[in-house]
Design brief:
Blueprint (H helix, E strand, L loop, with lengths): L6 E5 L4 H12 L3 E6 L2 H10 L5 E4 L5 H11 L3 E4 L14 H29 L2 E6 L12 H21 L4 E8 L21 H13 L8 E4 L6
Parallel strand pairs: 1-2, 1-4, 2-3, 4-5, 5-6, 6-7
Helix pairs in contact: 1-6, 3-4, 4-5
């Protein structure tokens, strides 16, 4: 089906994958709002492409900000793409880092889903896309908190899928491996040249959420052909 005239909200829109998903949504005919924490980057995205409905700076750790964001946008499509990726040993990881990681990677998607689904239920139509990671299925050294947060996001997505599907709301969890983004450059011990392209992942996501029949890919792992 066409996503024409559907209102989409993309968190983490200034990141490599977030930007690619926002652009893919535009090409699919959606009306797109961007949100992130960097005003300069958000403004540049809108200036470079006037098709965006607008950009909204949002602190995803602030519940009142999230409430205002959803009330203003009333999205048909919610893309929970914002995330942080601390690279530290367990011994070096502070409680503050733990709290921030779970606030952004898990708590914000939970609250945004809770709020946005109220509007989606009224229309009996909605798409909620959670961007997890290959780390939702595994554990790696020096990324314990990140891996834990993505495991949590996957678990939440699985529950939300079953809870909301009878309301016409489809919940997806996409778990890509390493991507050619600034965050991807933080990955240690792997060949960046083998990483996946953000545009390729974005196009896959848009196609998957466009189906409106009895088929759904609610949980998708996206891996590289060659891991080095």
């Amino acid at each position: 089906m066409s996503l024409s005239d559907k209102v989409a909200l993309v968190t983490g829109a200034t990141g490599g994958l977030g930007t690619a998903i926002a652009q893919a949504l535009l090409h699919a005919g959606a009306r797109v709002y961007l949100t992130g924490r960097n005003d300069d980057k958000l403004n540049k995205l809108v200036q470079d492409n006037r098709e965006y409905l607008g950009s909204i700076r949002a602190d995803l750790r602030n519940t009142r900000v999230l409430e205002k964001l959803i009330d203003e946008v009333k999205p048909d499509i919610l893309i929970n793409c914002a995330g942080v990726f601390p690279v530290e040993s367990i011994a070096e990881t502070s409680e503050e880092t733990f709290d921030e990681t779970f606030d952004i990677n898990v708590r914000a998607p939970f609250i945004l889903t809770k709020l946005a689904s109220k509007y989606m239920k009224q229309k009996q139509w909605g798409r909620i896309i959670n961007i997890a990671s290959s780390s939702a299925y595994a554990g790696f050294p020096n990324t314990s908190v990140y891996c834990a947060s993505k495991h949590a996001l996957l678990g939440f997505s699985r529950s939300a899928y079953h809870e909301l599907k009878n309301e016409g709301i489809r919940v997806y969890c996409f778990s890509p491996g390493s991507i050619k983004t600034d965050m991807g450059r933080l990955v240690k011990g792997q060949d960046y040249n083998t990483f996946m392209e953000p545009d390729e992942i974005a196009q896959f996501i848009i196609e998957a959420i466009s189906y409106n029949g009895n088929m759904i890919s609610e949980e998708v792992r996206l891996n590289r052909m060659f891991v080095q």
